[in-house]
Each structure stands twice: as structure tokens, then as C-alpha cells.
């Protein structure tokens, strides 16, 4: 079931972010709601760039912040480590994992090819009504871009892409995309935060949805792949690595 197009307000973004993080997290079943709350707080701060690579995570401060023992904090940190967002070394304080440009390139190259396939399948399998729902996502993205809301645009963009993947009606393809994990979110947010990226991205998404509406398989796949690789080129040109 694809995510529904949202309304545009802060509460909507918070709910969407929570739902997307929960769905992206493998093996959360059985974890406490407190563990997920700590995970969500840290994952959001890392993905949105407020906790940079190398930043040390103080478990005792987190336990005090959430009024809990260190056990849920440790569980949340282990989930974050599994997602590649933190490193938990023995007898040392955990810290936000470093990022290498080679890793960014490899993940983006995989994602570009997978989303080209997603777009081919959306053209072939999505109904007209389902494609209309992507236009509603597009309007939300346009509002975010117009106001310069990087965080809102990012989470709505994740929702848009998850909706596309669901419309491919290929469960294995969705699982492969999900396996790229929250590291991919981290890189995508970085790319979208760079100067000029929101306007470029929203224009590319408009071209993509138009290709869906026109049932143009080749164009949709080409735009989708180009959209992903443009994000990579922006990161490469930023000089951040």
C-alpha cells in the first residue's frame, strides 16, 4: 500500500517521518516504543545533518533526556549501528559514522538503476488514479521547494519515492531499495540541502510524473535515473568529501 499524499503542516511531516523510519527499520518488531523513540530522535538528527560524522553520542545524557535506564538507549544505538548511522566501539563512547565519497557513489549508482526499473513498471502497471496521486505528492514538493523547507521536502520526497516503489507492484524490488537503508536517506538529505537543489529536484520530479501520465516508459526510466544521479553529482561537486 503506497503512502498517501499528505497535507502540508509540521505535524504531517512528523507523522510521515515516523512512519517512514519505522517502515525502513528492519527488525524493530519486539522493541519497545521507548527504544524506537530514542532511535527516531537520533536517526532524524543524523539524517538531517544536525549530528555530523564523528559526533559522540552520550548514552547517559540520552537516558536522562528520555527518563529511562541505559538499556533502551543501548538497544536504539545497536539498531542505529546496524543501519550504518553510528559506530558502537567496545569501552568507548558511540559516535556518528563517517562517510566516504566512494560509499556514496556506490549506493547512488545502485539506487539509480533500481529506480529506472521502478519507473518502467509504474508506467506499465499503475492506474490513472494512482498516477494522479503522484501529482498530489508533486504539489506538496512544490510547496516545500517554494518555501525553502529542506527537511519537509526531504521527507515528502522519501514518501513520493516510496509511493512510486509500491506502484511498481514488485515486492522484491521494494525490498532491494529498502535494503539500502537509512544511510541512503542521510546522503539524500545532504544532496537536497545544497544550494539550488530543491528547485532542480522539484522540476525533475514534475518531468517524471508527466512521463508517467504520458505512459512513456523510456522517458520515465531515463528521467528517474537522471534524477538520482543528479543528486550524486551535486554531492561530488560540493567538496564535502
Automatic annotation (TrEMBL):
Pfam families per record: FCD, GntR
InterPro entries assigned: GntR_C (IPR011711), TF_FadR/GntR_C (IPR008920), Tscrpt_reg_HTH_GntR (IPR000524), WH-like_DNA-bd_sf (IPR036388), WH_DNA-bd_sf (IPR036390)
UniProt source species: Labedaea rhizosphaerae
Keywords, alphabetical: DNA-binding, Transcription, Transcription regulation
Lineage: Bacteria, Bacillati, Actinomycetota, Actinomycetes, Pseudonocardiales
GO molecular function: DNA binding; DNA-binding transcription factor activity
SMART domains: FCD (SM00895), HTH_GNTR (SM00345)
CDD domains given in the database record: WHTH_GntR (cd07377)
SUPFAM superfamilies: GntR ligand-binding domain-like, Winged helix' DNA-binding domain
Claim: Transcription regulation is one of the keywords in the record: yes
Protein name: GntR family transcriptional regulator
Record-annotated HTH gntR-type domain positions: 32-99
